[in-house]
Amino acid sequence: MERTTEKQLGKEEFLNFFRKIPKAEIHLHLEAVISRDTVRRFIRRRNPEFDDERAEQEIGRIFTYSDLNGFIKAYLAVQDLYDSPADFNDVFRDLRDYLVRNGIKYAEIFAAPSAFIKKGWDFSEIVSVYMKNVIKIETETGIKVRILIDVSRTFGFENAEKNLQLLLANMTPVIIGIGLGGSETNGPARLFGSVFEKARSRGLVTVAHAGEDVGPESVWDTINILRAARIGHGISSAGDEKLIDELVRRNIPLEVCPTSNVFTRKFVSTMKEHPIRKFFDRGITVTLNSDDPLFFGVELLDEYWNAYAEIGFSLAELRKIAENSFRASFIGDDEKAKFIDAVGKAWDGNPATAR
Ligand code: ADE
Ligand code: ZN
């Protein structure tokens, strides 16, 4: 669809329109969808002498970073504010509000238990809080959520292996697989091959962040050694034409998170130069995601707006990206077809597309 023949929508009209388009989000970190209010409350609980202003200063101190490893330190600092597994009830409430606000009908979210296990929390208790809340969200809103446990590359192979063992001992239908997040520079993909192999042998799906902070070699290792079904980010693939061909040939979707990449600054410094355009044009199944809403100040609808207003995707192309979000997900084919059909119905019934 040519952008030049299309009436340009204003921001409000665009957001109102896309809110009504059913979307999946498949790269979203649970502990990063926590609201600022919840973080402030956790800080004040830990520091009863703080007023709101002092708590806000503390938030400002934590949320100061300029690269991925700095961000990961901040992430761990926020996880450190939790006092017990019951705190996840608040975080899931924030997740529910986020999903509703953004018109998301299905989400695959990462939950990263390493920091909590290190505090001595019981993994089975954590899992039962996750499960209870996923069911609650679906009952209250009809939105389906599934969890991928981020076994983490930050703390080495043994920690990742231990996380998998804990998961295998606490299987539940709401947890469908594992992911690999954390410090890509300190935890190369190739270390985790056996963890991924074992997870798949037990029926779990496997995905991994790659090419976010390390060059295309990290993506190659992730598709060839980890054999991940999807790549989180994958942006360094832009510099390797053979790798792009391989992602197309093997139909490996990319979970693209543009604002996150601009924030961590490794391969892109402005939205306009983001390689999502190149990936889309070359035929990769690209999806749009927010990654870490509170940390990067962005929600899924904002990313659709950025793709439209800054990167230059047309409405028809964004419709395809919304459909891709279901195509690239781990739901069954029938369910995918229903969601994609629902995208079409919402599209046709919307005045913004009638011109
Ligand atoms: N954990 C949370 N967000 C992450 C990201 N963007 N990369 C790696 N690990 C993460
Ligand atoms: Zn991520």
From TrEMBL:
Its EC number is 3.5.4.4. Keywords: Hydrolase, Metal-binding, Zinc. One of its GO terms (molecular function) is metal ion binding. Pfam families: A_deaminase. Residues 22-345 form the Adenosine deaminase domain. It comes from the Bacteria. Its cofactor is Zn(2+). Belongs to the metallo-dependent hydrolases superfamily. Adenosine and AMP deaminases family. This is Adenosine deaminase.
